[in-house]
Specification:
The chain has about 325 residues and is mainly alpha-helical. About 50% of the residues lie in helices and about 5% in strands. Bound molecules: protoporphyrin IX containing FE. One of its GO terms (molecular function) is heme binding.
C-alpha cells in the first residue's frame, strides 16, 4: 500500500473540517470534491516552482513556460471557490454542520470588526492553513513511518508504550494521550530533526538596514536559514545522521540545543501551527502504530533519498504492508 495519498488526504480533511466542516478525500466523489482536489494539487505544484523573475527582475518581462499565466488562472479559480465557501457559511450559519467551523467564527468577528475581518482576510486564512499546514504534516508522517520501518526496534518500543498507555484501557488513541506518550513524541522530534518539512525555513527579508552578528545587512536582503544542516551539525549532535529518538529522552537538550533544533523556525515569525501540528502528528502516528502491525514491503531498507520540493518529500513514495492489531477487532465492530 502506498501511504502518501492516504496521509495527504488525511491532513487535508482535518484542515478542511476545521475551516469549513467538509472532507474532500476518501468519501463521496462529488463534483465539489473533485474540483477542490484538482485546485489543491495544482496549488502545490505551482508553489514548488522557482520563479526566475524573483531573482532577476528583468526576466519578469517574459513569461517562460507560461508560469505567470497559470498562477493567475489558478488564483482566480481558487478565489471563486473560497468565496463560495464563505458565502455558503454566511447563508447557513445556524445549521449544525456550519456552527463550529473556523469560517463561521471569523464571520462572527466580521460583525463587530468588519474593517479587519473582511472576506479577503477570511479567504486568505483558509488558503494559508491549506498551504502551510497540510503538506508539511503529511510529509513528516511519511518520513516518520519510513524511519520506523527501517528501525523495527524503535517501532516495537513505540508500540509497547501505546499498548501500556492506551490499548491496556481497551480504547483507541485520543488527543489527550498525545502529551502522555513521550517516546512517540521523541520519534516525531527525531523525524523533524533529520527530515524537517521546511529545510530552509521560509525566506525572510530585512525591512530596514540592520546589523546582525557584526555583519551589515542592507534593507530587502533575503535570508535563508539552513535548518537541515543545523539539525545535523556534528559539533552539536552525537551521531547526527543516526535515527535515535532516545536523544530527546531527557529535557537537557532544551537548554543545550534549543537554537539547533528549529523545525518550526524560531522567533516572531516561527510557525503559528506548531501546536496543532504536534497534536496532529502525534495522534495520527500513534493511531497508525496502535491499530496496525507494520512491515516493509520488501526485505530491503526503505530508500531515504530526499527530494527537492518545497517540503523536502521522499523521492520514492513509501510503500508498506500492514495488518490490523487485536485492539481494532475489540473496539471496531
Ligand atoms: C510538521 C508540520 C509543520 C512544519 C514542519 C512547519 C514548519 C514551518 C516553518 C519552518 C515555518 C517558517 C518559520 C520561519 O521561517 O521562521 C512555518 C511557517 C508557517 N506555518 Fe508551519 N509547519 C507545520 C505545520 C503547520 C500547520 C499545521 C499550520 C496551520 C494550520 C502551519 C502554519 C504556518 C504559517 C501560517 C506559517 C507562516 C508564519 C509567518 O510567516 O508568520 N504550519 N511552518
Amino acid at each position: 500500500m502506498e501511504l502518501r495519498p492516504l496521509l495527504s488526504g488525511f491532513t487535508l480533511n482535518v484542515i478542511m473540517r476545521m475551516m469549513a466542516g467538509k472532507r474532500y478525500y476518501g468519501g463521496e466523489d462529488n463534483a465539489e470534491a473533485k474540483e477542490v482536489r484538482e485546485l489543491i494539487s495544482e496549488t502545490f505544484e505551482l508553489a514548488g516552482f522557482t520563479y526566475v523573475g524573483d531573482f532577476l527582475p528583468i526576466l519578469k518581462l517574459f513569461d517562460f513556460d507560461g508560469y505567470v499565466k497559470r498562477v493567475k488562472k489558478l488564483g482566480s479559480r481558487l478565489d471563486k471557490f473560497m468565496q463560495e465557501l464563505v458565502d455558503e457559511h454566511r447563508r447557513n450559519r445556524g445549521q449544525t454542520e456550519f456552527k463550529n467551523t473556523m469560517i463561521t467564527h471569523l464571520l462572527t468577528l466580521q460583525e463587530t470588526q468588519p474593517e479587519y475581518y473582511t472576506d479577503e482576510i477570511i479567504k486568505g486564512l483558509v488558503m494559508v492553513m491549506i498551504d502551510a499546514g497540510t503538506d508539511t504534516t503529511a510529509v513528516t508522517l511519511e518520513w516518520a513511518m519510513a524511519n520506523l520501518l527501517n528501525h523495527p526496534d524503535v517501532l516495537a518500543k513505540a508500540k509497547t508504550e501505546l499498548n501500556n498507555v492506551v490499548s491496556s484501557e481497551g480504547r483507541l488513541m485520543e488527543e489527550s494521550d498525545t502529551s502522555t506518550c513521550t517516546y512517540l513524541n521523541n520519534v516525531i522530534s527525531e523525524t523533524l530533526r533529520l527530515y524537517p518539512a521546511g529545510p530552509m525555513l521560509v525566506p525572510h527579508a530585512s525591512s530596514v538596514d540592520c546589523k546582525v552578528a557584526g555583519y551589515d545587512i542592507p534593507r530587502g536582503t533575503w535570508l535563508f536559514v539552513n535548518a537541515w544542516a543545523i539539525q545535523r551539525d556534528p559539533k552539536v549532535w552525537d551521531e547526527p545522521e543516526a535515527f535515535k529518538p532516545e536523544r530527546f529522552d531527557n529535557e537537557e537538550w532544551k537548554t543545550t540545543k534549543r537554537g539547533n533544533f528549529l523545525p518550526f523556525g524560531i522567533g516572531r515569525r516561527a510557525c503559528p501551527g506548531m501546536g496543532l501540528a504536534q497534536i496532529l502528528l502525534s495522534s495520527a502516528l500513534g493511531s497508525l502504530i496502535q491499530c496496525f502491525d507494520w512491515e516493509r514491503d520488501e526485505d530491503i531498507a526503505v530508500d531515504m533519498s530526499e527530494g527537492t520540493g518545497l517540503t523536502m518529500p521522499k523521492v520514492v513514495p513509501l510503500v508498506a504492508k500492514c495488518k490490523s492489531s487485536p485492539i481494532l477487532d475489540n473496539v471496531v465492530v
